[in-house]
Amino acid sequence: INVTAWRKEEPATTNIEPENLKPSSRISSISHPFEFDPSRSAGSNPCFMGTMSHVITLHGVTTCTLCSYAHSRANPRFITLLPNRAPRVFPMLKSQSSTSRSITAIDFSDPDWKTKFKQDFEDRFRLPHVTDVFPDEASMPSTFCPKMRTRDFPGTYPLYENWHGYINDNDRVLLKTIYYSSPKSAGSECIDPGCNWVEQWYIFDFTIQIWNIVTDYAYACQKDSNVAIFKQWVHRAGPREKIYFKPEEVKAAIITCGGLCPGLNDVIRQIVITLEIYGVTKIVGIPFGYRGFSDKEMTEVPLSRKVVQNIHLSGGSLLGVSRGGSGVSEIVDSLEVERGINMFFVLGGNGTHAGANAIHNECCKRRLKVSVIGVPKTIDNDILLMDKTFGFDTAVEEAQRAINSAYIEAHSAYHGIGIVKLMGRDSGFIAMHASLASGQIDICLIPEVPFKLHGPHGVLSYLKYLIETKGSAVVCVAEGAGQNLLEKTNATDASGNTVLGDIGVYTQQETKKYFKEIGVHADVKYIDPTYMIRACRANASDGIFCTVLGQNAVHGAFAGYSGITVGTCNTHYAYFPIPEVIAHPRSLEIQASIDVT
């Protein structure tokens, strides 16, 4: 591993060979730890860059009594180590997450701001639990048995009595996994104004002799043979060995809100099946979203394995969907008095989750033992902190049909131009991924990137160039793109979302008008497959995803959590406090994404 070290103005290059590393017997809690022997290294200034799963110790270095940070890269007390290239052992997956807390809220003049930042993160990501309201609430052994139902195979599977398959309450999932060698790297985030605290900076302080690793708002400090590490962790999802609800006393309700999305029936089905595995017999569906609580003509839909067995074979929602609905107090009154519901599963997007969080808070205020669990449903894939949401893969796959049709129409016509509008109010995930997957798109317009239609550097000028050089062109536009070009209205829908102007129709009209004015023939075709995509059945990938999401939603409820939602983070299933995922819509990280370079 080649590493260049700087101290003041004197550069030195150190080459560390693998034979200079030997296993450490002193640190047993870290996988594959190593010690470094400077007496065997080539050069006087030993430097090492390793993965975060490795801990490096230097012989002869006095151990530290507290963790220290570099407050300035110009500080001569520190040597900052930057790799010439990222070693292959570094994980290269990046979480699509961003903190919902503004850095302006941090007092950087406070010398203890990093400790406070760490504590604030832990407080914000602590999962609300039934024992917060009922401290004396007793747990009981789980009625869910994840043990293998097949015979043991010695040497291949763990023995039945030594393996139970439950998730420990202290299990965590790392929120961010990418290694940044420099604050200038695409996608790296600086916490302080001086950009001195960024992901994975390796610093050695010769004054107090500490080997520090600063990573993702975190630090690692060696003290004697123990290593104290703090990173951004979230709670791992899955079945717990102890539960806080008696299945025979549970009445569970499921609700689907907002618009349609592929996979809704898959999630409903798996929630019902998992509840029955726990032993729950009273399961109902609330029809047509939150509206089902206020409309007295709408009655509960009894649910069982027999009812939901094959609903995943069709699109839509067995329970129906709607936007808006009842007030929080009215819903909680219905849960508590009229229906006797103590497990409430809410499937929806940002607005629906905001409602679920308000219901959770009201239940806590009234000291009700009700578990409110969210399952993110947004076809736009715009939920914070998560890898993706269900229905997104299906939407990208189905969008290929519309794009291919637009391509054939454009390619078959004289000076043909095909325009396809796809979903994406605040983010261009579907438009970008569908464009990349198809390989047939010439221009992709998304909300994250401002653009102009007219002018020498506008979209229409480039379309003219494509017609002159290729003879045809295909444009993909997200529904939330270019809203600054349209007349703004103050209208909102039932969910409180601003009613967007139709950028697809506007682009079609302006394209026809432009080519007519310049005297060039253009055959413009416009396709909007939005409702065809929303109503289709989930594909195989989303089907599996929905199944595990539904299972983990039930596991979270029986574990006693409330006011949480479930999703994937760096491919692992995790629980998140609802406020952290609805702070604002997630958007494409243009500078960090290799997909758009």
UniProtKB/TrEMBL annotation:
Protein keywords: Allosteric enzyme, ATP-binding, Glycolysis, Kinase, Magnesium, Metal-binding, Nucleotide-binding, Transferase
Domain Phosphofructokinase: 252-555
GO cellular component: cytoplasm
Gene Ontology molecular function terms on file: 6-phosphofructokinase activity; ATP binding; metal ion binding
Gene Ontology biological-process entries: fructose 6-phosphate metabolic process
The reaction(s) this protein catalyses: beta-D-fructose 6-phosphate + ATP = beta-D-fructose 1,6-bisphosphate + ADP + H(+)
SUPFAM superfamilies in alphabetical order: Phosphofructokinase
InterPro entries xrefs: ATP_PFK, PFKA, Phosphofructokinase_dom, PKF_sf
Pfam families, per the entry: PFK
Gene3D superfamilies the UniProt entry points to: 3.40.50.450
Cofactor(s) the protein requires to work: Mg(2+)
Function: Catalyzes the phosphorylation of D-fructose 6-phosphate to fructose 1,6-bisphosphate by ATP, the first committing step of glycolysis.
NCBIfam families: PRK06830.1 (NF005301)
Protein name, UniProt field: ATP-dependent 6-phosphofructokinase 5, chloroplastic
Organism field: Mucuna pruriens (Velvet bean)
